[in-house]
């Protein structure tokens, strides 16, 4: 069902009324898996005022964490010019915003899941609901008027979206379809170091390797 929801996103973007401000996707390569035409960014949103990262748990709870984690890794996908959809990589849930600035998550994409991304002069970004105009914050709705609470810094990920990369004392059960890490009693695999270097060499010389 989730795959069907994601596959219908481009059609929904085209069918939304003009007053909701959402038009056809921006032209360009990339994001074929989602049906959009821009490159998907994977970032962690760091809140300037609170010093916390926005996280979406597997149960759909939106909170803040002091460090990056698989739950704070987000897919930032362009929907139209200047507008993005935010979805948790681990939870596969969309981040949405109601008219009263209440944050919630949903398996299904809707107009409340579209945010206007505005880059500030200091490098931080502000995300506001395209439908309601309310600001995305990590504070309670009554505090949403304070601009510092709505400033986020999209940071490059230093972790992977794998549960076993979390600290050992953090409970995080593996999904049934998630590959398990190798056990300690697994026999070692013999590697040909020369062949391994040949495979690694093109990656090191790739421009994208040095941009990480």
From TrEMBL:
Gene3D superfamilies: 2.80.10.50. GO terms for molecular function: growth factor activity. Pfam families: FGF. It comes from the Eukaryota. Residues 164-186 are annotated as: Disordered. InterPro entries: Fibroblast_GF_fam, IL1/FGF. Residues 1-23 form the signal peptide. SUPFAM superfamilies: Cytokine. The keyword Secreted does not apply. Keywords: Signal. The keyword Secreted does not apply. Belongs to the heparin-binding growth factors family. This is Fibroblast growth factor. It comes from Knipowitschia caucasica. The lineage of its organism: Eukaryota, Metazoa, Chordata, Craniata, Vertebrata.
């Amino acid at each position: 069902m989730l795959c069907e929801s994601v596959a219908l996103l481009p059609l929904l973007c085209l069918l939304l009324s003009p007053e909701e401000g959402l038009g056809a996707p921006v032209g360009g390569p990339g994001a074929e898996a989602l049906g959009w035409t821009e490159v998907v960014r994977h970032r962690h949103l760091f809140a300037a005022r609170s010093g916390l990262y926005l996280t979406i748990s597997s149960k759909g709870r939106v909170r803040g964490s002091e460090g990056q984690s698989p739950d704070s890794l987000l897919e930032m996908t362009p929907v139209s010019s200047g507008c993005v959809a935010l979805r948790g990589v681990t939870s596969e849930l969309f981040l949405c915003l109601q008219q009263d600035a209440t944050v919630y998550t949903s398996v299904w994409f809707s107009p409340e899941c579209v945010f206007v991304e505005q880059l500030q002069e200091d490098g931080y970004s502000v995300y506001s609901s395209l439908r309601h105009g309310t600001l995305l914050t990590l504070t309670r709705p009554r505090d949403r008027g304070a601009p510092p609470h709505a400033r986020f810094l999209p940071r490059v990920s230093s972790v992977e979206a794998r549960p076993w990369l979390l600290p050992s004392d953090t409970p995080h059960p593996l999904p049934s379809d998630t590959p398990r890490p190798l056990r300690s009693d697994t026999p070692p695999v013999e590697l040909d170091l020369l062949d391994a270097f040949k495979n690694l060499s093109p990656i090191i010389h790739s421009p994208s390797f040095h941009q990480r």
